[in-house]
Amino acid sequence: MASSLFSRQLSLSLQKNLWLGAAGKSSSSNTGCRYVSKAAPKTQVEYDYDGPSMKTSVPGPRSKELTKQLGEIQNVAAVNFFCNYEESRGNYLVDVDGNRMLDIYSQISSIPIGYNHPALLKLMANPNNLSAFVNRPALGILPPENFPDKLTESLLSVAPSGMTRVQTMACGSCSNENAYKAMFIWYRNKERGHNTPSDEDLSTCMINKSPGCPDLSILSFMGGFHGRTIGALATTHSKAIHKLDVPSFDWPIAPFPRLQYPLEEFAKENAQEEARCLEEVEDLIIKWRQKGKPVAGIVIEPIQAEGGDNHATPNFFKSLRNIARKHGCAFHVDEVQTGGGSTGKFWAHEHWGMEDPADIVSFSKKLLTGGFYYKAELQAEKGYRIFNTWMGDPSKNLFLVEVLNVIRRERLLEEVTRSGKTLLNGLYELQTQYPGILSRARGQGTFCAIDVCDDETRDKILLKTRDKGVLLGGCGDRSIRFRPTLLFKEYHAHIFLNIFNDVLAQYK
Ligand SMILES: Cc1ncc(COP(=O)(O)O)c(C=O)c1O
């Protein structure tokens, strides 16, 4: 009785926020744009607003007040502004000062189908789901009855080629951290020729000494980002701020190809650059084996995101996969940022066109839960070897089932390809128009980026664009990254391009 009352109230209040909010706030749009971008036919996203609406500069007074208040409790140096998530809808994030911004950063690329999607609100309001939200289990020991079915309907229904097993985790770093452990355990069992540790293994591991804690390594790439926990951080090489003062491992770091864009125009130069990097990878694997720290696994992002949206060709990844095989290293593809559809395929590595692309694929962000897919041989033989209290959150799998339904029903990957083309073509046009400011436009689907002449100008452009109602993110030294939700349509691209053009015009 109490639960049905609660769910009715929840459902009513969510509907009120959703639909009354729509009626009251949908009419105004950004002003002052010079319309250079063609108007695209507006395909209706019912619950979306129809444009940005700005009342103050961002952060506004209420955000500043709250930042001060929170600053008394914790570090707020990274806080941009405070949000009103009840009023946010579709592609638009509303802040506490009533500013409504077209969100092309989507909570660091982690919102799959926009804010307050009706399909997800409906799921929340369903009384049958309440216990999943209220009772968070220790999944590794006490999973709920529907857990295997929900994993099958959600994560396994989009499993990368060759993968039949998946382990959920809480976040991206923790997914990678545990994936590395799985690779080390697999490698040691391979070295031993069996799964049974010796007495010496068991005693030395307790005091952090070899052979129980073996001198194995993970090869990563300069510019890569795999998270901020100690092991993941050892493979992160994007910005010093992430790593400073934290002890790390002596693990090999290979150069990631520094390609020229558009890729089709520089095929020869890029192939040479990729060959150079691949050669270095093999050299490092051999060198680290000679040092007594063999490479158990190679970890790589399909597009280096945090490190500056650096792309490589399918040929590079195919060759790297072969090098991993040749030297007996596991091949781990980190799809935490690229996974979930924004490149136009559900997994970015699908663009490589390989039957057997990886041994491990990690994910988080748009998949709502963290975790990693893995080949059967990478399963540790005992419980508790890959383990923590929560091991993910089964309520996220319920949401993911709905997200995948929406992606399929609304053919969102096709939409992403279409709107991504419009976005990238617009960026090409703008970089021709502003050659002193913009360069190296690049992208796959809506997973796009462009470079700005220097970091100071980039940061100013980001703030000015935000004050005009579009939220973007930076990455690398001087890139702007575009990470919209999967609901981003061509007309959203045009709204952005017009506002962006307006900001850039001030620099001419
Ligand atoms: C490729 C990649 N791997 C790992 C991570 C770490 O994920 P989290 O921030 O959830 O720990 C990120 C986060 O941005 C990422 O982009």
From TrEMBL:
One of its GO terms (molecular function) is pyridoxal phosphate binding. It is an enzyme of class 2 (transferase). The keyword Cell cycle does not apply. GO terms for biological process: gamma-aminobutyric acid catabolic process. The keyword Acetylation does not apply. PROSITE patterns: AA_TRANSFER_CLASS_3. Pfam families: Aminotran_3. Belongs to the class-III pyridoxal-phosphate-dependent aminotransferase family. Catalyzes the conversion of gamma-aminobutyrate and L-beta-aminoisobutyrate to succinate semialdehyde and methylmalonate semialdehyde, respectively. Can also convert delta-aminovalerate and beta-alanine. This is 4-aminobutyrate aminotransferase, mitochondrial. It comes from Pleuronectes platessa.
